[in-house]
Amino acid sequence: xxxxxxxxxxxxxxxxxxxxxxxxxxxxxxxxxxxxxxxxxxxxxxxxxxxxxxxxxxxxxxxxxxxxxxxxxxxxxxxxxxxxxxxxxxxxxxxxxxxxxxxxxxxxxxxxx
Amino acid sequence: xxxxxxxxxxxxxxxxxxxxxxxxxxxxxxxxxxxxxxxxxxxxxxxxxxxxxxxxxxxxxxxxxxxxxxxxxxxxxxxxxxxxxxxxxxxxxxxxxxxxxxxxxxxxxxxxxxxxxxxxxxxxxxxxxxxxxxxxxxxxxxxxxxxxxxxxxxxxxxxxxxxxxxxxxxxxxxxxxxxxxxxxxx
Lengths: 113, 186
Prior knowledge:
The structure holds two protein chains of two kinds. By secondary structure, chain A is an all-alpha fold. Helices cover 68% and strands 0% of the residues of chain A. In chain A, helix 3 (51-74) runs antiparallel to helix 4. Chain A starts with 12 loop residues before the first helix and ends in a 5-residue tail after the last helix. Chain B is mainly α. Helix content of chain B is 70%, strand content 0%. Chain B contains eight helices and no strands. The longest helix of chain B has 23 residues, at 16-38. At the A-B interface, helix 1, helix 2 and helix 4 of A face helix 2, helix 3, helix 4, helix 5 and helix 6 of B.
């Protein structure tokens, strides 16, 4: 228990003693494998998509967009609505990402870009 | 010993060892701050907060400009993270009641006296829960986690005099609350 560092007002001596006895308990510490678990998690979350997976993902996205456009055009839709229906979800994703980023900045607080 | 700012610069360029050293330097205090905010009934959650804080720091370290001390930045993230978690778990049953963990067995009072002490400790714990968050955190850091005023002030991101005033004000409020509930502090 720390010795009193604050100048305890005599009228607060009772509550000071009470808090010392009431709040006395073992001080917890982090488990010894905290660093290992953390660094494992860091590696897992920071692993970038490798080149092959990135190309595959982009190709899949482009083919999907193209196929959707062709099918919608085949149903007689104009290019305007088709473009709208493809771009609207992309804009929604971008908006959600920017909102999440703004929320994250609030959580991170000052000292952060 | 290499300064935090040099380690941050190295970590920003992808040096995992530098990041690991920053974790070793700050993990204990990050955990203490999280525990002081969440209380002793949420220690496993405080561990999760500590891990989440370092993952956030790792994710955002490239954007850290160094306008504030790295330690202040990381304690601020911890405070926000723990407060967010506390808001989520507020209505959930804790792992163990705060008073159950009290280590007051140094003397062996008579059963009546013991029951009275246990009851008073429970009421005190309830009163503490009603205090503003920073007061609660300051009390737990000072009276439970053996932090001095200087450490409590640093972790809470306030000047030492402010930390002293948190403690002083918390004691005053608790005194009044206990008196209202019919308990003496002597």
